[in-house]
């Protein structure tokens, strides 16, 4: 079901180590955004020059109202990244519903926005906590019987326990979420549990596991194009079909947000392998990065 377009609110959360990739993502978002919007940028450990760079990227989009917040003090106490490539700053997104009302689209910094996200704000989530996209890796594991390993089986067992009565195939990737902040605010106990960064840090995959356990059974599954894992939408659909999980999601679209999740990042690669979906996704990022660096040569991702 769709409604009239709501106020477009988009949120990013990062620290200094991931600032430049996040700015590339914001630049790509603004290039495709039609109409007014709010951009909420939260930073951990950023200095004055960093905040200036944030404002510089957004300054070319006068229709976008920038709201900055420093989360260096008081928000992340006891939080830590559960994996080497995941920083504690990612836990900052757990505070979004307590600070912003309405619908908020959270986007990770290791993304490239390739289309206008505004249509997503016509979606009616009802009482669901969020609009999400099923996780590619879990879908792959559930479909790939030949590639089974002890570590993979243990992780799938953990996910099944976490999801309880909800199918493991509905486990979502938390790198892109349309949060229904009012629905969460209507349940203060849930809101408090969501903001428990210590509990989230103790999970194998941090706040992604934490959110899946809290939100299970009360999310709307979006079309895969809203969180396209390294551009592998076709493979993702095939994996879901193989494990008899629905490959159909709300708000059908082509690729709107390409997500380069995991320890490998496209800005650290020079791959030109057009024969693989990951290779093509890397090239897509590098071409966009080249355009970004023409205007902002001092903001190359590390």
Automatic annotation (TrEMBL):
One Pfam family per UniProt: Glyco_transf_8
Domain of life, source organism: Bacteria
Keywords: Glycosyltransferase, Metal-binding, Transferase
Keyword Coiled coil: no
Protein name: Glycosyltransferase family 8 protein
Source organism per UniProt: Paracoccus aerius
Biological classification of the source: Bacteria, Pseudomonadati, Pseudomonadota, Alphaproteobacteria, Rhodobacterales
């Amino acid at each position: 079901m769709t409604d009239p377009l709501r106020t477009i609110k988009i949120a990013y959360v990062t620290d200094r180590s991931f600032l430049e990739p996040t700015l590339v993502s914001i630049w790509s978002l603004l290039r495709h955004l039609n109409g007014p919007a709010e951009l909420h940028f939260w930073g951990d450990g950023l200095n004055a020059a960093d905040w200036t760079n944030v404002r510089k990227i957004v300054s070319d989009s006068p229709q976008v109202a920038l709201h900055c917040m420093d989360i260096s003090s008081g928000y992340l106490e006891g939080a830590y990244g559960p994996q080497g490539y995941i920083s504690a700053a990612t836990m900052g997104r757990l505070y979004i519903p307590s600070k912003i009302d309405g619908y908020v689209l959270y986007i990770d910094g290791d993304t490239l926005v390739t289309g206008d996200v505004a249509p997503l704000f016509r979606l009616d989530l009802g009482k669901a906590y969020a609009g999400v996209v099923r996780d590619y890796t879990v879908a792959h594991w559930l479909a790939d019987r030949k590639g089974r390993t002890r570590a993979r089986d243990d992780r799938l067992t953990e996910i099944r326990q976490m999801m309880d009565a909800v199918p493991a195939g509905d486990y979502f990737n938390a790198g892109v979420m349309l949060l229904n902040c009012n629905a969460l605010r209507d349940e203060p106990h849930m809101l408090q549990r969501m903001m428990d960064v210590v509990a989230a840090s103790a999970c194998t995959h941090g706040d992604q596991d934490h959110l899946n356990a809290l939100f299970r059974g009360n999310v709307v599954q979006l079309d895969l194009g809203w969180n396209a894992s390294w551009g592998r939408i076709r493979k993702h659909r095939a994996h879901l079909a193989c494990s008899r999980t629905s490959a159909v999601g709300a708000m059908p679209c082509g690729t709107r947000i390409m997500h380069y999740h995991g320890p490998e990042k496209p800005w650290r690669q020079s791959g030109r392998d057009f024969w693989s979906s990951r290779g093509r996704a890397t090239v897509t990022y590098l071409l966009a990065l080249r355009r970004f660096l023409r205007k902002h040569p001092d903001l190359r991702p590390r």
